From TrEMBL:
<keyword id="KW-0641">Proline biosynthesis</keyword>
<dbReference type="GO" id="GO:0005737">
    <property type="term" value="C:cytoplasm"/>
</dbReference>
<dbReference type="InterPro" id="IPR029036">
    <property type="entry name" value="P5CR_dimer"/>
</dbReference>
<feature type="binding site">
    <location>
        <begin position="82"/>
        <end position="85"/>
    </location>
    <ligand>
        <name>NADP(+)</name>
    </ligand>
</feature>
<dbReference type="InterPro" id="IPR036291">
    <property type="entry name" value="NAD(P)-bd_dom_sf"/>
</dbReference>
<comment type="pathway">
    <text>Amino-acid biosynthesis; L-proline biosynthesis; L-proline from L-glutamate 5-semialdehyde: step 1/1.</text>
</comment>
<dbReference type="InterPro" id="IPR000304">
    <property type="entry name" value="Pyrroline-COOH_reductase"/>
</dbReference>
<protein>
    <recommendedName>
        <fullName>Pyrroline-5-carboxylate reductase</fullName>
        <ecNumber>1.5.1.2</ecNumber>
    </recommendedName>
</protein>
<feature type="domain" description="Pyrroline-5-carboxylate reductase catalytic N-terminal">
    <location>
        <begin position="10"/>
        <end position="111"/>
    </location>
</feature>
<dbReference type="Pfam" id="PF03807">
    <property type="entry name" value="F420_oxidored"/>
</dbReference>
<dbReference type="GO" id="GO:0055129">
    <property type="term" value="P:L-proline biosynthetic process"/>
</dbReference>
<dbReference type="Pfam" id="PF14748">
    <property type="entry name" value="P5CR_dimer"/>
</dbReference>
<keyword id="KW-0521">NADP</keyword>
<keyword id="KW-0028">Amino-acid biosynthesis</keyword>
<dbReference type="GO" id="GO:0004735">
    <property type="term" value="F:pyrroline-5-carboxylate reductase activity"/>
</dbReference>
<keyword id="KW-0963">Cytoplasm</keyword>
<feature type="domain" description="Pyrroline-5-carboxylate reductase dimerisation">
    <location>
        <begin position="174"/>
        <end position="278"/>
    </location>
</feature>
């Protein structure tokens, strides 16, 4: 087997919804070997049946088997908690005496602090918080990772390798994770919103929906690829497009007058306030 293969222990994904499935997509790549395979749980038997058709995945439905989550964590080295935040305490209580003593519990639930995991899980179990974003589906995620007081550097490195199968990883203290979520976690929505607005502007100028989509979607995708391939900063790339006294300069001046920085400050502050509300219950 190639030395570039990522080796991971058996993984239980509790709550195989959109984010759980996105992470699983990385774990199912040819260069990732999950020792013991992946066991995924969700409520619906129909969804479990569709997941069961994926090689390397065993899917269980809690509607069919009330012990599905406990069965899933048996023997798992990594337990990915991907249920809705409000469901996390009950789930942790449910699996507490079934989980392996040396397991790593990884949360993708927004607003649930590590202190809650520490309170509800055995003392030997490490907990790590994460905040991936939806581009994980295409292997382009940015995932924030925060270690808990019980996690070792080796455990954090193992979880980092898991998330690197779907993109890049930024390690931050837990105190910064909610702020990170307002940037990279919510960030795809901001980008899609900008695409919506520029598309509306194109429609107002008489272009068809198909033409507007080609122009706007293609421009955002092309600009993102250019940024990825370039050593230049976004500011430098913007300046390259903006000829002195030209049309782009006039347009950018209008955007600068709108003080988009202040708008993004207010938007991300609002998201952070909501994250703190969730954490407070």
């Amino acid at each position: 087997m190639s030395e570039n293969v990522v080796h991971l222990p058996k993984i239980a994904v509790l709550g195989a919804g959109s984010m759980g499935r996105a992470v699983m997509s990385g774990l199912l790549k040819p260069d990732v070997h999950v020792d013991g395979g992946i066991v995924a749980t969700n409520r619906s038997a129909q969804r479990a049946a569709s997941l069961s058709r994926t090689d390397g995945v065993t899917a269980l439905a809690t509607d069919d088997d009330p012990n599905a989550n406990r069965e899933a964590v048996a023997g798992a080295g990594i337990v990915l908690v991907a249920v809705k935040p409000a469901m996390v305490p009950d789930l942790l209580t449910e699996i507490a005496d079934a989980i392996e003593p040396d397991a790593i519990v990884v949360s993708v639930a927004a607003g649930v602090p590590l202190a809650r995991f520490k309170e509800l899980l055995p003392a030997s179990v490490a907990a790590i918080r994460s905040m991936p974003n939806t581009p994980a589906i295409v292997g382009k995620a940015v995932t924030g990772l925060s270690a808990g007081t019980r996690s070792t550097p080796e455990q954090v490195a193992l979880v980092r390798r898991m998330f690197e199968t779907v993109g890049t990883v930024v390690e931050v203290p837990e105190s910064q994770l909610d702020a990170l979520s307002t940037i990279s976690g919510s960030g795809p929505a901001y980008v899609f919103f900008l695409i919506e607005q520029l598309t509306a502007a194109a429609l107002d100028k008489g272009f068809t929906p198909e033409q507007a989509a080609q122009m706007v979607n293609g421009t955002f995708i092309g600009a993102a690829h250019l940024l990825e391939a370039s050593d230049s900063t976004p500011e430098q790339l913007r300046i390259q497009v903006t000829s002195p006294k030209g049309t782009t300069e006039r347009a950018v001046a209008v955007l600068q007058e709108a003080d988009l920085k202040a708008v993004f400050d207010r938007a991300t502050d609002a998201a952070l306030a909501r994250a703190r509300e969730l954490a407070a219950g």
